[in-house]
Amino acid sequence: MIATTMDTTTMSGKDVRMASRSGEFAQPTSGAAPDIVQTNVAILPKDLAFEFLVFCQRNPKPCPVIEVLEAGQTEAVLSAPGSDIRSDVPQYRVYRHGELVDEPSDISDYWRGDLVTFLLGCSFTFEHALIRNGVHLPYYGTDKNVAMYKTNIMTAAAGPFGGPMVVTHRWVPRERVVRAVQATSRFPAVHGAPVHIGDPAEIGIEDLSKPDFGDAWDPQSDDDVSMFWACGVTPQAVAMASKPELMITHSPGYMFVTDMHDEDLAVM
Amino acid sequence: MIATTMDTTTMSGKDVRMASRSGEFAQPTSGAAPDIVQTNVAILPKDLAFEFLVFCQRNPKPCPVIEVLEAGQTEAVLSAPGSDIRSDVPQYRVYRHGELVDEPSDISDYWRGDLVTFLLGCSFTFEHALIRNGVHLPYYGTDKNVAMYKTNIMTAAAGPFGGPMVVTHRWVPRERVVRAVQATSRFPAVHGAPVHIGDPAEIGIEDLSKPDFGDAWDPQSDDDVSMFWACGVTPQAVAMASKPELMITHSPGYMFVTDMHDEDLAVM
Q: What is the pLDDT of residues A35-53, one digit of tens each?
């Protein structure tokens, strides 16, 4: 199949999954199937699954669990009926003992009956909420990324899993700060309320111009305030650091698209 | 030790736990340590723990997880530092293959290195919120219980765990219904928003005067509306139905008292 860039804004979640499965869809999913919940993907052997799920339970802000597929299960029955986790993500990453060994568009060759899939909330949902509430996100819908930083906020460990929380940073106009807290608090299943507002040094970030992942952004005015939210890179970084024998994830930006609507995740 | 009835309203969570440990405290915990989070307790062998935790993740309204203690861990490090789950609940129930075999005040004799403890949210937190918002709960602070019913709402199964959702029922004055939705929506970690408002028959409840658990209650006026919330009895009933080789729970009403404040669980 030849991968072509398509107009993705009119696609449903199922459209994106089926086109990923056939190979037609081979691009990042940002902006595709708007207002539909997209997720991070982490696939681990069952012997690590309980402790990884406990890690997520202990750290719901960076690790919001949307669905868990039990060992060998390939369909996300609840969030994406009819899906196949082996083929419906546009691009995967395969790691052995923490080392990247492959970046395929299908993982059928790697699949095993003991693999457990975790679908974890991604920030697209809450970014829609920020935009609707008047917060400008300059990277949104571009090929640039939000700025991400390791902090001195430690996650609560579970088994072999533990380490620092990774956060995303966004500049928010002072008069929109309260609104940004409110708008994201409605979505605890996708990182929820911010973890910090103001001086980056207070959470161990020395230089905003040097993010650990993604791209640095300048404020739009002197009145912009730094706001930090827990980031879904945290569980992946933590799992990787434990060097599991096999771990499969989505490629950054190439998410699993469900059938759930953003508003399904709102608590109020 | 001799169990005496004490004034429990001035006790802290730690006070209740230490007095339970020494044997001084041997009564239901309703009203003890007000505004402190109390939890249901379910202790299962590790080979069932992953699927039970997935069951809870799939059914967050009836099964809100406050903390998981890994295999052999006896201290609730996050919600009740210094606690010992083997002694700090005033009364336990021990089940073998689904049959009640003992109701001790200490489970040290039953403890094993492969036991995983689940602390699950209990309705006391959200009942405080209802009372503060003008909803009268006639059983509150008495020796009577809320009315509980099995419904035709099926939980999402995981491994051997599945079955109908159990709900609690409360009469709410018509002009307080919206407020009751709002007040409980703030607490998704302790059952959250109601699952049904109005006609009991629509969720398979034939006769409100015949609850499956607890006590039936008459409305206070013709203007009262039936409201139903997911109930923490659900995960216990579901686990029991799978007849695990060993399962230990709290005795109904004799909860584990943490150090967390109700407001720590509020999302907004």
A: 899 999 999 999 999 999 9
Greater pLDDT, A176 or A252: A176
Closest by alpha carbon to A160, among A203, A98, A111? Answer: A98
Residue A136 main-chain phi, psi, to 5 deg: -80, 125
B51, B68, B182, B184: best to mutate for the A interface, most A CBs within 10 A: B68
A153 and A204 in contact (C-beta within 8 Å)?
yes
Q: Phi and psi (nearest 5°) for B179?
A: -60, -40
Cα dihedral sign for A60, A62, A67, A68? negative
pTM of the model: 0.88
**Chain B contact set for A67 (CB, 8 A):** 57-58
Residue with tokens 């919330």: B229
The token pair that represents B182 in the structure block = 């709002």
Count of CB pairs separated by less than 8 Å, A with B:
59
The answer to whether B37 and B265 are in contact (CB under 8 A) is yes
Interface residues of A toward B, Cβ cutoff 8 Å, are 46, 49-51, 53-54, 57-58, 65, 67-68, 70, 78, 156, 158-159, 182, 185-186, 188, 192-193, 267-268
CA distance B55 to chain A (A): 9
Tokens representing B60 are 């967050």
First-to-last C-alpha distance (Å) of chain A: 44
Mean pLDDT of chain A, nearest integer: 92
Which amino acid is located at A150 in the chain? K
State the pLDDT at residue B4: 53
Out of B78, B192, B193, name the one closest to residue A58 (CB).
B78
Task: Look at A267 and B46 and tell me if their CB atoms are within 8 Å.
Answer: no
Strands of B92-146, DSSP E: 92-96, 99-102, 115-121
Q: Residue written as tokens 């669905």?
A: A67
Q: How many residues does chain B have?
A: 268
Q: Compare CB distances from A267 to B53, B158, B267 and report the shortest one's residue.
A: B267
Q: What is the largest CA-CA distance in chain B?
A: 55
